């Protein structure tokens, strides 16, 4: 999981509940493996194209370019771009082609399993880029292998329990909503705003058409 701060808002006015709402720092949560995977695929695509050109296979490079472009575009939309942003007003679910701005007041439940789903305004919004569950080592069981190799009689009964607990971005996502509810965010006159990401679509359309044209020729 990767987390980055994107600034903060010092405060918000009274929301009608009689309490002063303190805005949370804007934080972006991502799966730890998403961007490295995208970078590896892009290096593969560029390396393949360069190798074909250096080898003198110009025709093969021309035919491969649309497919490599489509692969690169798909990796950008599915791995590099998706994330889940949390700020003082709510959640920002950034997916491949669509963005959803979800105010805290519209959220009815958060489901954290392999993916993070937010139930709001009668719909379910699934984040493509939210942190995935940590491994056993990421959860704090760094000495699992050592425990398995030690004789049972030498294993303290509290060895596993004493392993340090590791907080993840998934905990922070749920905690942000709980803190907002405790602060008394009003649910009236708040709506979820969903928008298409047109720059990504505009780039994707010619890439797809180029692949179709390459397959027909």
Concise overview:
This protein has helices spanning 34-54, 58-80, 144-149, 169-183, 198-216; strands at 2-5, 27-30, 83-86, 90-94, 98-103, 107-112, 116-120, 123-127, 193-196. With 217 residues, the protein is α+β, with helices and mostly antiparallel strands.
What can you see in these coordinates?
The chain is of the alpha+beta class and 217 residues long. The chain is 39% helix and 20% strand. The chain is built from five helices and nine strands. The chain has helices spanning 34-54, 58-80, 144-149, 169-183, 198-216, and strands at 2-5, 27-30, 83-86, 90-94, 98-103, 107-112, 116-120, 123-127, 193-196. Strand 7 (116-120) and strand 8 (123-127) form a beta hairpin. Helix 1 (34-54) packs antiparallel against helix 2 and helix 2 runs antiparallel to helix 5 (198-216). The two termini are 43 Å apart. Residues 6-21, 136-145, 150-155 and 158-166 have low confidence and may be disordered.
Please tag this protein with its features.
5 helices, 217 residues
The rounded Rg comes to 23 Å
**Biggest sheet architecture:** 6 strands, antiparallel
Strand content: 15-25%
Share of helix, binned: 25-40%
| Strand order in the largest sheet | 1-2-3-4-5-9
The whole-number mean of residue pLDDT values reads: 78
Q: How far apart are the first and last residues' alpha carbons, in Å? A: 43 Å
Number of helices: 5
The residue ranges in which pLDDT falls below 50 over 5 or more consecutive positions are 6-21, 136-145, 150-155, 158-166
How are helices and strands ordered from N to C?
A: EEHHEEEEEEHHEH
- SS-based structural class? alpha+beta
Total strands? 9
Spatial shape: elongated
């Amino acid at each position: 999981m990767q987390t980055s701060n994107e600034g903060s808002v010092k405060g918000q006015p009274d929301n009608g509940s009689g309490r002063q709402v303190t805005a949370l720092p804007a934080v972006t949560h991502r799966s730890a493996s998403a961007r490295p995977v995208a970078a590896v695929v892009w290096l593969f695509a560029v390396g393949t194209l360069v190798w074909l050109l250096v080898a003198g296979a110009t025709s093969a490079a021309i035919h491969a370019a649309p497919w490599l472009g489509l692969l690169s575009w798909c990796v950008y939309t599915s791995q590099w771009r998706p994330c889940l942003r949390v700020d003082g007003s709510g959640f920002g679910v950034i997916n491949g082609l669509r963005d959803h701005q979800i105010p805290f007041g519209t959220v009815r439940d958060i489901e954290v399993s392999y993916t993070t789903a937010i139930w709001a305004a009668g719909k379910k919004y699934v984040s493509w880029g939210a942190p995935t569950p940590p491994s056993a080592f990421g959860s704090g069981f760094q000495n699992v292998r050592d425990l398995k190799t030690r004789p049972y009689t030498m294993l303290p009964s509290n060895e596993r329990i004493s392993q340090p607990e590791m907080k993840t971005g998934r905990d922070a996502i749920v905690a942000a909503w709980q803190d907002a509810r405790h602060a008394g965010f009003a649910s009236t006159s708040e709506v979820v705003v969903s928008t298409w990401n047109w720059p990504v679509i505009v780039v994707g359309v010619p890439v797809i058409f180029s692949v179709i044209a390459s397959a027909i020729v």
